[in-house]
Specification:
Distance between the termini: 27 Å
Oligomer: single chain
Number of helices: 0
Shape: globular
Number of strands: 8
Radius of gyration: 15 Å
Largest sheet: 5 strands, mixed
Length: about 110
Amino acid sequence: MDLVGRTVTAVDVAGGHLGADGLLLEGDLLHGVVNFPDGAGGWSFAVNLVRLDADRRTARLVRQSQPAGLDESPTTIARDGERLLRVNSQLNAAAPTPPFTVTPVRGLC
């Protein structure tokens, strides 16, 4: 990303991908909320952790969090001290029910 020129460049991720939601950059580590087919005709969500190369144009998947279900539909992430947290939007839940929750990302902390 070039803030002055207002341009962005896609990051090629070996072994995985990143989505447009929930990106969190910490040094050369980039977390991103991703969605993927669950194998049963629906979708699951997870957070992928990738390590960026020095040029920040390529990266490789380090690991993926435990998946979250369609009823949670995480959309963003944030760091609170040692905890990585996700916001569960319930966008894909059949009947979204408050309270909407913030939960720890399991498998990456």
